[in-house]
């Protein structure tokens, strides 16, 4: 069963069509890495899935339930807000620039949404936050403010924060590209462990090591479409599309 | 020596009037803060009528003299709608100042809210918080610290602007000083009065500096 599926998804900003026709089905437990040149629409695609952007056309299914369908910008179908919110909660998102809440400590960052969205008690949320922060290797940072943490530590808090809502799928938008090189490894390790635990993941990243080691599928996105897809081996060792070849030559 | 005795004798009246000035300032700014938050949220709202109403309110109260607004509330409204006659001059002044200051605070609050990184709202949304929850729990708490210096500034301005209420005969500090000056034919009274204003301003500034430090703990 697919966790997320899109049909003919398109998105324009005014006259600029960024996503043209994206058809993707993400199966339970799958780890998909998306690569592609700057401006290809990778971020826009992830952001369309959890409604940080409104799509222009196409359908989005979550757990095989149609949640949104649009045509030429107009709504064809949309779930009632409450129901839709529940489906959107199945997605957690990690941003390139962490976006931690600077006025909250690490633990408070993780506790905020469970307490206010899921009505979890403070004690329960705290216990869960401590467990998650320990899992991402921050057992000694519960009560630090983000400004006192390194970029890699902040990103791991952000991962714990998203996990606290118990999503079925995690979306990562270039989670390591704002980090100093020596801090990238810690974050990738956490992501790898998450994948090993069976989490479904959709990751925009150019970390080839991670893609080769962890991904089930790699998508090459270019000019608003998925130009090529395949196993990491197929894409990295034997790309078919000339655009893929050209892109890999540049970044490898 | 003689002057000192004179000043000493005026002090009870001056202190009582200082109380009026202080009460009017604090009551107006606090009321204006509540109103200002709603106006600021209204102005950045995506709801067109709400946005338009908030903008029009702010435009009107910032674009006309406070003195006229005060006259309007005290004299004109009771004439047009007798049911709205307000007995207490102090209450009239309080309403006029609150409505006026709210427009200025709304702009301060709006600027502070909009200076918070867009990623904060996106992170909140991706965690399932509603817009109202995001504002209350994430955005406005971060905007607080940035609002404090301009709000302090506004406090000090209002403290001085309240001297306008002499015009509808509310016995604030400035009005009391003028009464004493004309009755006792002594202009000496302006010296202690200015000192009292300075002390009040100093108190506000100190309190707000403390507040700013308190809200900066996480930086
Ligand atoms: N809010 C917006 N308004 C207008 N144009 C936008 C907006 N967001 C993105 N775009 C445009 O959409 C295109 C795709 O942007 P997007 O951020 O999705 O690319 P990307 O593949 O993530 O690139 P990068 O690797 O640089 O992150 C770009 O041309 C960008 O300028
Ligand atoms: Mg991007």
Q: Can you describe this structure?
A:
The complex is a heterodimer of chains A (252) and B (219). Chain A is 37% helix and 29% strand. Chain A contains nine helices and eleven strands. A six-stranded mixed sheet of chain A has the order 7-8-9-3-10-11, with helices on both faces. In chain A, helix 6 (181-196) links the parallel strand 8 and strand 9. In chain A, helix 4 packs across helix 5 (151-163). The mean pLDDT of chain A is 96. Chain B has 219 residues and is mainly α. Chain B has a single domain (2-215), classed as MetI-like fold. Helix content of chain B is 80%, strand content 0%. Chain B contains eight helices and no strands. Chain B has helices spanning 2-43, 48-63, 66-80, 89-114, 118-126, 131-161, 173-183, 190-215. At the A-B interface, strand 7, helix 3 and helix 5 of A face helix 5 and helix 6 of B. The complex binds adenosine-5'-triphosphate and magnesium ion (MG). Magnesium ion binds at residues 42-43, 173-174 of chain A. The site of adenosine-5'-triphosphate (ATP) has 11 residues of chain A, from strand 2 and helix 1.
């Amino acid at each position: 069963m697919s966790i997320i599926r899109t049909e003919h998804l398109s998105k324009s900003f005014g006259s600029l069509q960024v996503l043209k026709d994206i058809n993707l089905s993400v199966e339970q437990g799958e780890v998909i890495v998306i690569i592609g040149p700057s401006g290809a629409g990778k971020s826009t695609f992830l952001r369309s899935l959890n409604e940080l952007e409104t799509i222009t056309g196409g359908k989005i299914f979550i757990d095989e339930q149609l949640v949104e369908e649009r045509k030429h910008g107009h709504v064809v179908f949309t779930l009632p807000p409450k129901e839709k919110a529940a489906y959107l909660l199945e997605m957690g998102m990690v941003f390139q620039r962490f976006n931690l809440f600077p006025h909250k400590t690490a633990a408070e960052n993780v506790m905020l949404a469970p307490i206010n969205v899921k009505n979890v008690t403070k004690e329960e949320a705290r216990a869960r936050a401590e467990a998650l922060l320990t899992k991402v290797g921050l057992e000694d940072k519960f009560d630090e403010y983000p400004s006192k943490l390194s970029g890699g530590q902040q990103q791991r808090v952000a991962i714990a924060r998203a996990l606290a809502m118990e999503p079925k799928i995690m979306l990562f938008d270039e989670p390591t590209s704002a980090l100093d090189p020596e801090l990238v490894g810690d974050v990738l390790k956490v992501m790898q462990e998450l994948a090993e635990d069976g989490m479904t993941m959709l990751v925009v990243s150019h970390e080839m090591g991670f893609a080769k080691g962890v991904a089930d599928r790699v998508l090459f996105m270019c000019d608003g479409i998925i130009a090529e897809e395949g196993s990491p081996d197929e894409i990295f060792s034997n790309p078919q599309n000339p655009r893929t070849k050209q892109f890999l030559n540049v970044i490898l | 020596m003689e002057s000192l005795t004179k000043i000493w004798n005026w002090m009870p009246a001056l202190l009582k009037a200082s109380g009026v000035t202080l009460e009017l300032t604090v009551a107006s700014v606090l009321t204006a803060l509540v109103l200002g938050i709603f106006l600021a949220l209204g102005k950045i709202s995506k709801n067109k009528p709400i946005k338009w109403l908030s903008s029009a309110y702010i435009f009107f109260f910032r674009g006309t003299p406070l003195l006229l607004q005060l006259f309007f509330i005290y004299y004109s409204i009771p004439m047009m709608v007798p049911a709205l006659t307000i007995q207490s001059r102090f209450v009239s002044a309080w309403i006029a100042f609150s409505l006026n200051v709210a427009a200025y605070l709304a702009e301060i609050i709006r600027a502070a809210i909009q200076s918070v990184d867009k990623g904060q709202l996106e992170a909140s949304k991706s965690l399932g918080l509603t817009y109202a929850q995001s504002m209350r729990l994430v955005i406005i708490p971060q905007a607080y610290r940035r609002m404090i210096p301009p709000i302090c500034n506004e406090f000090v301005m209002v403290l001085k602007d309240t001297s306008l209420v002499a015009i509808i005969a509310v016995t604030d500090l400035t009005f009391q000083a003028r009464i004493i000056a004309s009755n006792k034919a002594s202009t000496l009274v302006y010296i202690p009065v200015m000192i009292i204003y300075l002390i009040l301003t100093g108190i506000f500034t100190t309190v707000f500096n403390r507040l700013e430090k308190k809200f900066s703990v996480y930086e």
